[in-house]
């Protein structure tokens, strides 16, 4: 059901974001191969990290297998850094240190609600710090099959977009996936 041109955010329409399950060994193997997990575990506080990683499907700067990232913020739950190919005036990614592949693995309840809320708060703080005069801020997640890295990551953008094509990547496509606004995701995860 569509509400104002978007998927109905009510709990009865929760099917688009299902609580996925992974066996413990599959989760461990996925985390070991995940470039964002490597970053979260090896990024020095307040600096630039260069990691050896053999993949071209990264969302980060890499050269001959070397990955380079400048961290913007970190705490016990999340790491934030600049997107390697920014779509907007300012474009950061906030990732949880825990390996969660996509929004489909988030479960309705306090734990994941609190995590997404913390990611949003971190991103909002960065945007207001680094782009206080932005026209608009956007916060959201890509949903499969439109996610480029299988590690949950919040896109935090200070608009305007660099081009109309870049803006197209951040449109919600209803039940087909696309992009989901962080506040809409929080509504779907809320138990109250």
- One letter per element, helices H and strands E, the order comes to EEHHEEEEEHEEHEH
The whole-number mean of residue pLDDT values reads 75
Give a quick account of the main beta sheet: strands, pairing sense, barrel closure. 8 strands, antiparallel
User: Which bin fits the share of residues in helices?
Assistant: 25-40%
Q: Which CATH-level-2 architecture?
A: 2-Layer Sandwich
Low-confidence stretches: 1-18, 21-28, 46-67
Our count of helices gives: 5
Itemize the secondary structure elements and their pairings.
Layout: E1 2-3, E2 6-7, H1 24-33, H2 35-42, E3 48-52, E4 61-63, E5 66-74, E6 78-82, E7 88-96, H3 110-130, E8 136-143, E9 154-161, H4 164-168, E10 178-181, H5 182-189
Antiparallel strand pairs: 1-2, 3-5, 4-5, 5-6, 6-7, 7-9, 8-9, 8-10
Tell me about this structure.
- The chain is of the alpha+beta class and 192 residues long.
- It has a single domain (17-189), classed as HIT family, subunit A (2-Layer Sandwich), CATH 3.30.428.
- It has helices at 24-33, 35-42, 110-130, 164-168, 182-189; strands at residues 2-3, 6-7, 48-52, 61-63, 66-74, 78-82, 88-96, 136-143, 154-161, 178-181.
- The strands form 2 sheets. Strands 3, 4, 5, 6, 7, 8, 9 and 10 form an 8-stranded antiparallel β-sheet that branches.
- Helix 3 (110-130) runs antiparallel to helix 5 (182-189).
- It starts with a strand and ends with a helix.
- Residues 1-18, 21-28 and 46-67 have low confidence and may be disordered.
Keywords:
single chain; 192 residues; alpha+beta; HIT family, subunit A; 5 helices; globular
């Amino acid at each position: 059901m569509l509400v104002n041109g978007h998927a109905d955010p009510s709990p009865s329409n929760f099917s688009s974001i299902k609580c996925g399950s992974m066996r413990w060994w599959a989760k461990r193997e996925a985390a070991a191969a995940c470039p964002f997990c490597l970053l979260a575990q090896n990024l020095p506080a307040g600096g630039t990290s260069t990691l050896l990683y053999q993949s071209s499907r990264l969302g980060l700067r890499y050269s001959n297998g070397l990955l380079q990232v400048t961290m913007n913020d970190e705490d016990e739950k999340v790491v934030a850094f600049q997107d390697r190919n920014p779509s907007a005036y300012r474009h950061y990614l906030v990732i949880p240190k825990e390996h969660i592949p996509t929004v489909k693995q988030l479960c309705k309840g306090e734990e994941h609600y609190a995590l997404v809320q913390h990611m949003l708060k971190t991103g909002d703080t960065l945007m207001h710090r680094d782009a206080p005069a932005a026209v608009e801020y956007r916060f959201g997640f890509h949903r499969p099959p439109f996610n480029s890295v299988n590690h949950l990551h919040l896109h935090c953008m200070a608009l305007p977009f660099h081009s109309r094509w870049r803006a197209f990547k951040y449109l919600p496509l209803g039940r087909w996936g696309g992009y989901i606004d962080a506040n809409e995701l929080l509504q779907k995860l809320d138990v109250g």
